[in-house]
Each structure stands twice: as structure tokens, then as C-alpha cells.
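Entry 14. Structure prediction run on the chain below.
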Amino acid sequence: MILSMLAMTIYLEMNPGPWRPVNDGVMGGVSSGRMLESEGKLRFEGQLSLENNGGFASVRRQVDQDLSKTTAVRLELRGDGRTYQFRLRQDSGFDGVAWRAEFPTSGEWQTVELSFDQFIPVFRGRRVLQAGPVVPAKIRQAGFMLADKTPGAFALEIRSIGFLDSANP
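Output returned:
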């Protein structure tokens, strides 16, 4: 979804320090994922494994900015042809409901814009419709996840992560 007349963008800092891996090892799996810095960009990379009922790798970080006036996220990235998720959480906890939006990658640099109304609330991969929509003022975490049921190496390069405000054209 393309948003027009954007008034402001709030960017997340592009350094790997605040990013934390949360992989399927928390449930017995053996997948790995991490966030690194590579040539001035972030790189979410690892190995997805389906062994031991695994199948996901993710990274997330705390968000301290006031996102109350934002309506979408814009990602500048290059993937490896796999479909990734961008995830939001409305608390600072480890476990609980997350809001996810999926996006395919092509191997080329691309700009992906995800309106908050595209995000689906989930808990451990299952929809939680009673959780309601994303409430921008409550966003406390953001992250990436790969859970496409395809084992093997993966890599997603990220140039920027921006939260878009279209309330004041």
C-alpha cells in the first residue's frame, strides 16, 4: 500500500546493538538468526531449520520513540527471494501478542510500505482477532521474522526502517 502526502518519518537507528535474537530454540528448535551490521546496513541472517518442531528465526528491538501519530512503516531492504514478516508488539514483554505483516522479497533493493491496518494480531503463529488493530501509541517493540517453512540459509539486508505519519499533509 502506498501512502501519499507523508508529513514526517521517524527512523529507527541503524545499528545492531539494540536487536535481540528470538529463535525457535525457545521451543526446542535449532534455527538461528541474528542482526549484524554490514557495510552501513543491518543484515538479518541465519539458518532456518524444521528439526525438533522448529521453524522460525527472528530479531526484535525496543522502540522508545513516540509513534502515536504514525500510520505505517516503510522498509528499504533487499532479501533473498523469501517472504519475511515485520512484527510489532505493544508491550516490552518477551512473550505475548504480536502484530505481523508479511512481505515478499525479490533479491533486488525494494521499498516496502506496510499500513498498520495490514497487520494481523498473532500469538505463537495463531490469529488473535480479539486483540484488535495496532495502536501506534502503544508500540514498544519492532522486529523481523522468517517462518516460511523452508529450511536453509537466509539473509535480509535493511537500509532503513521508518514509521510514517500521514496525519498532517
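The CA atoms of residues 117 and 133 lie 7 Å apart.
Filed with the rest of this week's runs.
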